[in-house]
Amino acid sequence: MKNVTDSFLSLGHWPFAGSFGFFNTDILSTNLINLSVVLGVLIFFGKGVLSDLLDNRKQRILNTIRNSEELRGGAIEQLEKARARLRKVQMEADQFRVNGYSEIEREKLNLINSIYKTLEQLENYKNETIQFEQQRTINQVRQRVFQQALQGALGTLNSCLTNELHLRTISANIGMLGSIKEKTD
């Protein structure tokens, strides 16, 4: 401030070229004087206002930085929580995947075992059916052979059998039946 006042005082010692008494008609020097007076007044009175404006601006900037740091910290915290949740979900997904594969393998084995049992039962049913059909066919063949043998025997008996032979056969059969009856009594 002393420099500004000194500059005003030193202006007073300048020679006034083309002046009327105490009025300075030199436009260049009067503009410098007016400018220095205006600047001095602005600096003197505006210093507090400018200082307040700069302090307010500084506080707003600091508050903005502080809020940004808080937001950054919150964002970092949320990011860490999200990462932790992601890791947890990935572990659960891996567990589900492993359990799913195990379940699929278990179901596959159960299905294969069930199919083998079913095939085994079908094989048994097939074998039983084949045996039954073989037995039935054998019985049918036996019946036909027996019927043919019986018809052949009857035909032979009828052609060879005379009345006398017929009566002896009947008597012999009656005798055998009588002896069997006596043994059972």
Q: If you had to describe this structure to a student in words, what would you say it looks like?
A:
- This protein is mostly helical and 185 residues long.
- It has one domain (30-175).
- The chain has three helices and no strands.
- It has helices spanning 2-12, 27-160, 163-184.
- Helix 1 (2-12) packs antiparallel against helix 2.
- The chain starts with a helix and ends with a helix.
Quick structural summary:
The protein has helices at 2-12, 27-160, 163-184. The protein is mainly α and 185 residues long.
Which short descriptors sum up this protein?
185 residues; mainly alpha; single chain; 90% helix; rod-shaped; 0% strand; 3 helices
Chain-wise SSE layout:
Layout: H1 2-12, H2 27-160, H3 163-184
Using only C-alpha atoms, the radius of gyration works out to 67 Å
Question: What is the count of structural domains?
Answer: 1
Structural class: mainly alpha
Spans with pLDDT under 50 lasting ≥5 residues?
Answer: 11-20
Biggest β-sheet strands, sense, barrel: none
Membrane topology: Single-pass membrane protein
Coiled coil: 72-99
Family: Belongs to the ATPase B chain family.
Pfam families: ATP-synt_B
